[in-house]
């Protein structure tokens, strides 16, 4: 059967990646499916981790940033949950078992479950400014350092917004959109370690590029986005005041207004000093750290303000993107999908609805989506059934699970060369024509490769709902896999009319 979750790891080739893959390989969790490593470097030798684990796949996102890399990873997976990990986290023994527990116990309305992230800090001294910055991951909400999302929630929201080119805010944006779509988010029981990597001398200045993402967050989610996403309050206003004071002091000095320049310069110095003290006070007190804080505290306000100004101009027309409805009709297989499979069944008395079929189909109809049945019935060509037998069974299926907009079937065998027998496109194209929609706006729900193949041949989408007879390679090849019909309908409604 389909695994519970796949893992997606965006990377730029950090040395910590092999250790993370080794930890995942050692996990005995049976619910872990694919491990997709997304290489987000623009160039360089393609990654090829020699793990010996067939679950590990490599995808490329060509420098599109964390959001683009994770979207590429989503497309390379098909499990009901996608669990995102940073390539520099460390997984303790038993992490997989706790991840399984978190996802298996998540209520149906839970769209995401976050793992707890611990950041080890030096024990012999107080942390530096950079170390405190990384340590904030421990209290950050919905960060994808260790975050699992239900696939239906990702489908409903369209995944990560690639207008966020850097880390951090793309996490908050997705979390807010998932919540706005009606899902709940919660914190799980699993824990991972996120060590503090090296921080160059100017790291606090280069990190100010994130101010552009804060501006975009305000445009997309309003001024209260920090409160809604659990993000700490920034210093943007104080940085702007400091920058204006400094610029005014320089202007007054240039205009030979020395007294005004002295007053304005003193105010600038006071603001800069307050900022530097706030950063120095909790630190280790070393000469290097103090020098770094003094210099960068003078540079950060104008840099941050300039970045915000440019972002206000660049994002002045930004609007939240709502995924367009893509599904206008649903084509379902019959035997093994909406009713229990009885080989070559011609007896209406043997028809038994599949578990959850009635409620799942009712949800589609309530949303106003046409529902059509398309099935192969080669028993007619084999002489095991008559067309009348098939139609009597179809009528019974409709009595139990209907009404359907159409019930189509192919009576031919494998060697008849017809265009309607799945995996050929004929039945799906005919269903789309009856529903009056483009085949690309249809989705096929079935239990085997023939259903997926028919959808692909017709240019439609597909969802595989495996049963005991579904082959493992069919599950592996499917684009979208659902454990049951209810989950398949979750996906359809997420993609369909909203």
Protein described:
The chain has 498 residues and is α/β, with parallel strands linked by helices. It folds into three domains: 5-199, Spore Coat Polysaccharide Biosynthesis Protein SpsA, Chain A, CATH 3.90.550; 200-321, no CATH class; 329-495, Rossmann fold, CATH 3.40.50.1000. Helices cover 42% and strands 15% of the residues. It contains 18 helices and twelve strands. The chain has a seven-stranded mixed β-sheet with strand order 3-2-1-4-6-5-7, sandwiched between helices. A five-stranded parallel β-sheet has the order 10-9-8-11-12, sandwiched between helices. The radius of gyration is 28 Å and the shape is elongated.
Calculate Rg over CA atoms.
28 Å
Query: Care to count the β-strands?
Result: 12
Fraction in helix: 40-55%
Q: What is the CATH T-level topology of the largest domain?
A: Spore Coat Polysaccharide Biosynthesis Protein SpsA, Chain A
Separation, N- and C-terminal Cα atoms: 30 Å
Q: Find the structural class using helix and strand composition.
A: alpha/beta
Strand neighbour order, sheet with most strands:
3-2-1-4-6-5-7
* CATH C-level category of the largest domain: Alpha Beta
CATH H level, superfamily name of the largest domain: Spore Coat Polysaccharide Biosynthesis Protein SpsA, Chain A
Shape annotation:
elongated
Low-confidence stretches: none
* Secondary structure tally, helices: 18
The quaternary structure here is: single chain
Order of helices and strands: EHEEHEHEHEHHEHHHHHHEHEHEHEHEHH
Q: Please indicate the count of domains.
A: 3
How is the biggest beta sheet arranged?
7 strands, mixed
- Give the DSSP E fraction (strand runs of 2 or more residues): 5-15%
CATH architecture of the largest domain: Alpha-Beta Complex
Q: Give the integer mean of the pLDDT values.
A: 92
């Amino acid at each position: 059967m389909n695994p519970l979750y796949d893992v997606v790891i965006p990377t730029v080739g950090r040395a910590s990646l092999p250790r993370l893959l080794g930890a995942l390989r050692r996990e005995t969790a049976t619910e872990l499916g694919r491990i997709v490593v997304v290489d987000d470097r623009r160039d360089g030798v393609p990654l090829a981790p020699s793990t010996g684990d067939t679950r590990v796949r490599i995808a490329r996102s060509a420098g599109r940033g964390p959001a683009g890399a994770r979207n590429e990873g989503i497309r390379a997976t098909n499990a009901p949950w996608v669990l995102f990990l940073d390539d520099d986290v460390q997984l303790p023994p038993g992490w997989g078992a706790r991840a399984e527990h978190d996802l298996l116990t998540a209520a149906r309305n839970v769209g995401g479950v976050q793992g707890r992230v611990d950041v080890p800090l030096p024990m012999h001294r107080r942390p530096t400014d950079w170390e405190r910055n990384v340590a904030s991951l421990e209290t950050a909400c919905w960060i994808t350092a260790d975050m699992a999302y239900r696939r239906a929630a990702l489908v409903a929201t369209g995944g990560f917004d690639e207008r966020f080119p850097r880390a951090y805010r793309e996490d908050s944006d997705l979390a807010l959109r998932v919540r706005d779509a009606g899902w709940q988010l919660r914190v799980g029981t699993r824990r991972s370690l996120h060590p503090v990597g090296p921080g160059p001398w100017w790291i606090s200045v280069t990190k100010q590029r994130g101010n552009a993402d804060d501006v975009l967050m305000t445009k997309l989610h309003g001024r209260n986005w920090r409160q809604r996403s659990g993000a700490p309050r920034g210093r943007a206003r104080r940085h702007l005041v400091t920058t204006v004071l400094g610029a005014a002091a320089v202007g007054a000095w240039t205009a030979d207004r020395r007294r005004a320049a002295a007053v304005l310069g003193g105010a600038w110095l006071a603001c800069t000093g307050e900022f530097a003290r706030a950063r120095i006070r909790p630190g280790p007190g070393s000469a290097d750290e103090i020098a770094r804080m003094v210099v960068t505290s003078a540079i950060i306000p104008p840099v941050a303000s300039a970045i915000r100004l440019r972002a206000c101009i660049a994002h002045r027309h930004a609007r939240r993107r709502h995924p367009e409805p893509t599904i206008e009709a649903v084509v379902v297989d019959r035997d093994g999908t909406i009713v229990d499979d009885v080989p070559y069944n011609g007896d209406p008395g043997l028809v038994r609805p599949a578990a959850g079929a009635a409620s799942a189909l009712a949800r589609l109809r309530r949303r106003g989506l046409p529902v059509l049945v398309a099935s192969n019935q080669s028993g007619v060509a084999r002489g095991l059934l008559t067309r009348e037998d098939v139609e009597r069974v179809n009528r019974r299926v409709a009595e139990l699970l209907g009404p359907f907009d159409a019930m189509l079937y192919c009576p031919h065998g494998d060697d008849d060369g017809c265009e309607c027998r799945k995996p050929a496109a004929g039945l799906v194209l005919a269903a789309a024509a009856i529903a009056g929609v483009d085949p690309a706006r249809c989705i096929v729900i079935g239990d085997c490769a023939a259903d997926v193949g028919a959808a692909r041949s017709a240019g439609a989408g597909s969802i595989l709902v495996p049963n005991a007879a579904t082959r493992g390679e069919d599950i592996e090849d499917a684009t979208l896999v659902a454990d049951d019909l209810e989950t398949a309908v979750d996906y359809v409604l997420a993609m369909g009319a909203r």
